[in-house]
Design goal:
238 residues; single chain; 9 helices; globular; Rossmann fold; 4-stranded antiparallel sheet; Arc Repressor Mutant, subunit A; alpha/beta; 12 strands; 21% strand; 45% helix
Length: 238
């Protein structure tokens, strides 16, 4: 049974979420304000956090920042009434794994939750299978076990999805991935129109690890296809 923390100040929405999470065999804990939610998120272990952005005392973006600052990697699904693209970007940049805009359909909510759980299961199985091998590419070091990235002897702070994206590409140097494949493998779902999510994460990831954004060294674009990580020969050449 998966445990889910719901941080949401609308009791009607909480009741609706609890009903459908129960159908997914999830146990739930509820916080109706930001401070209580943050305390629960920092003090207890959950498999998923459902987080509203507009909250009393502490807003959802700040909660997400504090969760990630404490190196808690629990998946976060953000809920908000705001539909503007900038709010979605802010949510993802603070470390959210996925984003739903109110009002949302129950069907889509269930699909997102299932996708998050499925992705986490695949990640755990892959880490256990691969033995948590550290990936090294010159001055770039990726530790899947500790979810840590070191570049030029300095730690690079990545959001959970940025890290998962980097591990996927770096684990398979030279292999090409379409945006649709990346969505499926990193986010765990396939929805038309969400390819921009991949592009925005690639851009933010590059800004953190590439020495020259005009000439990417690690993450290469395949025009009309998608992305790939540089193979050994290309890295040696750089």
């Amino acid at each position: 049974m998966n445990s889910v923390l719901i941080i949401e100040d609308d009791r009607n929405i909480v009741d609706l979420l609890e009903i459908h999470l129960k159908d997914l065999d999830c146990s739930t804990s509820v916080a109706l304000d930001g401070k209580t939610g943050l305390d629960k998120a920092l003090g207890e272990k959950f498999d998923l956090i459902i987080l509203d952005i507009m909250l009393d005392k502490i807003d959802g973006l700040e909660i997400c920042r504090k969760i990630r600052a404490n190196e808690i990697t629990t998946p976060v699904l953000m809920l908000t009434a705001k539909a503007e693209e900038i709010d979605k970007v802010l949510g993802l940049e603070t470390g959210a794994d996925d984003y739903l805009t109110k009002p949302f359909s129950v069907r889509e909510f269930i699909a997102r939750v299932k996708a998050i759980f499925r992705r986490e299961k695949i990640l755990k199985e892959q880490i256990n299978k691969d033995g948590k091998k550290t990936l090294k590419f010159g001055s770039l070091v990726i530790d899947p076990d500790k979810r840590k990235v070191i570049l030029n002897d300095k730690r690079i702070e990545l959001t959970p999805k940025e890290f998962d994206l980097l591990v996927l590409l770096a684990s398979n140097p030279g292999k090409s991935y379409t945006r649709e494949q990346i969505l499926s493998l990193v986010w765990g779902y396939e929805f038309d129109g969400y390819e921009h999510t991949v592009n925005s994460h690639i851009n933010r990831l590059r800004a953190k690890i590439e020495p020259d954004l005009s000439k990417p060294k690690y993450i290469l674009t395949l025009w009309g296809v998608g992305y790939r990580f540089s193979d050994d020969d290309e890295l040696i050449g750089n």
